[in-house]
Amino acid sequence: MRLTYLGHSCFLVRTPTATLLLDPFLTGNPLASARAEDVTCDYILCSHGHDDHIGDAAAISKRCGAPIICNFEIGEYLNAQGLKTAALNPGGGADFPFGRVKFTIAHHSSSLVEAGGKITYLGTPCGMLIHAGGKSLYHAGDTALFLDMQLIGRGGLDAALIPIGDRFTMGPEDALEALDLLRPKVAVPMHYNTWDPIRQDAPKFAAAAAARGHSVNSLKPGASLEI
User: Domain spanning 2-213: which superfamily?
Assistant: First the structure.
């Protein structure tokens, strides 16, 4: 499994049989390492309904014919636009040709601010567990620290993608606690430095994690990692 960080919380994941795009937010992302129109994938996975996680999902899905794996409410919202979705909710999973996806809990919110300031509720925020090609990947989505992370990590994780930006998600201190619970082989920080309110020192976080026995790879946008 090969992970390529595209910026913010967006990753391109190449499995032996399919390419997955997680939380596609490229248009309007000042750190994006690719343009939405240049990205191709077989499936799109969205953790929740905020624009910085589903912003390019519809356009890429239409162009590539990629189904969108998401929560029920996002699925209904996108189905109404003629898009193909596969809906899951926390605790539920499903098998796909490339492997299995299970959604976990996440403590956050999930909505879309539309024209005129109208807020559309888009269901429960989720984390995403992906099992493909004999590897296990956890994308935490946007979340606070929660004790049940120890259950998410109980089967062993090859990699965990965790937010460290603070303000809207875990900050670095809580992200260290999350690593103690998850115990992944490697962690990749995300959801930071996109804008000033979530600016963080990723090398400092990696050093603090190493002091606690964790491996952290602070990928720069455009960089890749084999797990």
Answer: Ribonuclease Z/Hydroxyacylglutathione hydrolase-like (3.60.15.10)
Residue 86 has pLDDT above 90, yes or no: yes
136 in Cβ contact with 129 (< 8 Å): yes
Give CA angle at 208 (206, 212), nearest 5°: 110
Cut 0.85: pTM above it: yes
CA distance 67 to 60: 10
Cα–Cα dist 131/126, whole Å: 16
Question: Residue 150 in contact with residue 134, Cβ under 8 Å?
Answer: no
Q: What sign does the dihedral 65-21-18-71 (CA atoms) show?
A: negative
What are 139's strand-pairing partners? 128, 161
Contact 155, 129 (CB under 8 A): no
Q: How far apart are CA 9 and CA 87, in angstroms?
A: 20
